[in-house]
Amino acid sequence: MTYNSTLLRLLDERGYIHQFTDAEGLDAMAGKQVVPGYIGFDPTAPSLHVGHLVSIMMLRQLQRAGHKPIVVMGGGTGKIGDPSFKDEARKLLTEDLIKENVASIRRVFERFLTFGDGPSDAIMVDNAEWLDKLEYIPFLRDIGQHFSVNRMLSFDSVKLRLDREQSLSFLEFNYMILQAYDFLELSRRAACRLQMGGSDQWGNIVNGVELARRVDGTQVFGLTTPLLTNADGTKMGKTVGGAVWLNEDQLSHFDYWQFWRNTDDRDVGKRLRLFTDLPLDEIERLEALEGNEINAAKIVLANEATKLCRGEEAAKSAEATAQATFAGGGMGGDLPTIEAGADGIRLGAACVELGFVASNGEAKRKIAEGAVRLDDVVMDDPALLITLAPGESRKLSVGKKKHGVITKA
To answer: In CATH, what is the architecture of 6-225?
Structure first.
């Protein structure tokens, strides 16, 4: 389909579009007025991760096209947890922990969006503002009547759990109703006309679109992005070392930069479109590079993605660290660092503490495979005691891409 609005052309050209509830209607609205659009983020951890980044970038593209991003923090829905495509119920969080997570997560959005009072300035709201005040019987009577249990059971996100004979609590089953109500409430409070999200949110988004039409007669729209996978078919953002966190206190600048630098050759173009602001003609030039030259494109990707999330200085520092570590054989200043105690630290324990392996058992296996090096010398004893003099540092490497520093004050 050919789009007339700047918004949908931009989203289409950069690969964000998977499904619409009404493509023509949204295209027409986006061509004649500012469209407020929202995405919700449940505060299940102190930081969002790379899996959330396409949604954050969608809000950024919405603003770049002259429309208004609404960031919805799930202080209310986070008390339940989205069951969509999960194998089991999320661990219930305390209200205090939810508030702490919300405060921690807020920071990252200020790097991607411009907040303020202007027509296209972003705003941030917390759905606890309205969900915490709901009265159960009036909510069932006024909102619950618009939902068919038969239809809710037909959504893939629910069917997956039921087909596997895995428990789906009544608490979780209500999540999709609350998310739909969020859209209705945002339509009323902020004239929100668009909800965006990943393809796993399609059923929840459709519910919200229909609820706004049935209750208020308001036309609103839904748009989802494709499921992001790597060229090898694995889910993007899932790494051996765990989640790729957006907050720097959860993951170092260097490790964040290195995640992008390690992109598969086949994924470079797609990631440049989705996760940077580079012009499309420049992206086409970079993704056409072949052989060793594609590494230059990966460095551009790492720098641009890190600049957006962590700032320009973080990107420069991480690149300098990579240069010192890989090309110069030294230790860059951004490498993850641990401090050895007065009695030193065992080699296997250091691998675990740096986050390079998940357990002592995995450390032993890596050491047995010859994958662990201390100051670029292969080590073979997990019980090796590493002792340092005050002010001394040593480099610990696991494989070709994981490097850290052991130091002593």
So the answer is: 3-Layer(aba) Sandwich (3.40)
